[in-house]
């Protein structure tokens, strides 16, 4: 048991201040997302650019949450692989469907 507690003590956790900084960055990115959505109600930029920017901003937020709050940053490579490969697959699939069905107007349209 003594060896286990020594191993656990060797791993340092970030300070509360660090987590507050990460939370602040997440709040700023969220404000940018909401601001972009509200501003583009006047159609100032193309829809594809708005969607692209929103995807980039949400990817930044998701990566920050996974790396810092879920502690994936310090995990073994296999855990990163197990998490990131399905995420990349799902993202690629979502983007493919968005491109394939971008001109579809639906049954009522």
Task: Chart the SSEs and their pairings.
Blueprint lengths: L1 H9 L5 H24 L7 H23 L7 H24 L9
3D architecture notes:
By secondary structure, the chain is an all-alpha fold. The protein is flat, with a radius of gyration of 20 Å. Helix 2 runs antiparallel to helix 3.
Query: Given the C-alpha coordinates, what overall shape results?
Result: flat
Order of helices and strands: HHHH
Question: How many strands, what sense, and barrel or not for the largest sheet?
Answer: none
Q: What is the alpha-carbon Rg in Å?
A: 20 Å
Number of helices: 4
- What is the distance, rounded to the nearest whole angstrom, between the alpha carbons of the first and last residues? 67 Å
Strand content: under 5%
Helix proportion range: over 70%
Q: Based on helices, strands and strand pairing, what is the structural class?
A: mainly alpha
Short description:
The chain is mainly α and 109 residues long. It has helices at 2-10, 16-39, 47-69, 77-100.
What are the salient characteristics of this protein?
single chain, 109 residues, mainly alpha, 4 helices, 73% helix, flat
């Amino acid at each position: 048991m003594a060896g286990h507690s020594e191993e656990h003590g060797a791993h340092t956790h970030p300070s509360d201040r660090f987590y507050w900084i990460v939370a602040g960055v997440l709040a700023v990115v969220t404000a940018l997302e909401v601001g972009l959505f509200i501003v583009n109600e006047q159609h100032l930029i193309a829809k594809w650019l708005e969607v692209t920017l929103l995807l980039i901003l949400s990817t930044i937020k998701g990566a920050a949450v996974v790396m810092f709050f879920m502690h994936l940053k310090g995990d073994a490579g296999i855990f990163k692989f197990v998490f990131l490969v399905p995420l990349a697959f799902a993202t690629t699939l979502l983007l493919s469907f968005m491109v394939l069905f971008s001109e579809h107007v639906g049954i009522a349209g």
